[in-house]
Amino acid sequence: MFGRVPTTRRYLMCAPHYFAVNYAINPWMDPSRPVDRELALAQWSELRDTYRRLGHTVDEIEPQPGLPDMVFAANSGTVVDGRVLGARFRAAERAAEAEHFRRWFLERGYRDITMPTKINEAEGDFAWTGRLLLAGAGFRTDPAAHAEAQEALGVPVVSLTLTDPRYYHLDTALFVLAEATDAAPAQVAYYPDAFSAGSRRVLARLFPDAVLADADDAAVLGLNGVSDGRNVVLPAEATGLADRLARIGYEPVLVGISELRKSGGGPKCCTMELRK
């Protein structure tokens, strides 16, 4: 009925060999809670293997000691049409990650690389819809970084304001289900209560057929999903959102991310898309 069509993707990921919760830079992080690194690695490996099973390509960057959040590759770059906009982290604990990713791109032949002057946490706060870039601000990325992204990537940018500290990045409150094509507009899923009133009006105008998530979906980072246009990779606990997506023709794929969620991350946080 819906004719959902998957498209093959290329992703960049970083294994959580040094994953830990040694500091708190978002409400999910509690250094007093134990972290099972072996389980984190097993869950990350399941996520990587799921992408490959779905026909996607996964590249890997070497993790670095002393950077426990480097596993969250989405925060270190935004790639559209082969142009790369790097990251500039707000938290000092993560600042060094940006250079490792810049070098990875440079060593693999990317030449159109821009490193931002404003705080910019990459796909954590930038979501490409196929026509425009949705850009979040409120907790991490500087609003001025939105104009910088438009200039560097050469795509129109729409700014959105996040208001709930639990959903500190755009990718914890919204993800793209299907990118826009000549035949159909983009479709997104989002949690309305994570956004300002004005941003909710913007989203309603841009995406009248959006899938609206509820508080239960959001509380398990269900909006930190990854879709190829048909297959939608979600945290295992996001069963309500999975049911709603299945009813409109998507194929939910549930994966365990319990350990990574202790740092406020899920499938999308671990996944940077390389768009050429």
What are its keywords?
single chain, three-stranded mixed β-sheet, alpha/beta, 276 residues, globular, L-arginine/glycine Amidinotransferase, Chain A
Description:
With 276 residues, the chain is an alpha/beta fold. It has one domain (10-273): L-arginine/glycine Amidinotransferase, Chain A (5-stranded Propeller), CATH 3.75.10.10. The protein is built from 7 helices and 15 strands. The longest helix is centred in the first third of the chain and has 17 residues, at 37-53. The radius of gyration is 17 Å and the shape is globular. The model has no long low-confidence stretch (mean pLDDT 98). One of its GO terms (molecular function) is hydrolase activity. This is N-dimethylarginine dimethylaminohydrolase. It comes from Amycolatopsis cihanbeyliensis.
How is the topology of this model organized?
Elements: E1 10-14, H1 37-53, E2 57-61, E3 78-80, E4 83-85, H2 97-107, E5 113-114, E6 126-128, E7 133-137, H3 144-153, E8 157-161, E9 174-178, E10 187-190, H4 197-206, E11 211-212, H5 215-219, E12 226-227, E13 231-235, H6 239-247, E14 251-255, H7 258-261, E15 272-273
Parallel strand pairs: 1-2, 4-5, 7-8, 10-11, 13-14
Antiparallel strand pairs: 1-15, 3-4, 6-7, 9-10, 12-13
Protein name: N-dimethylarginine dimethylaminohydrolase
Keywords: Hydrolase
GO molecular function, one term: hydrolase activity
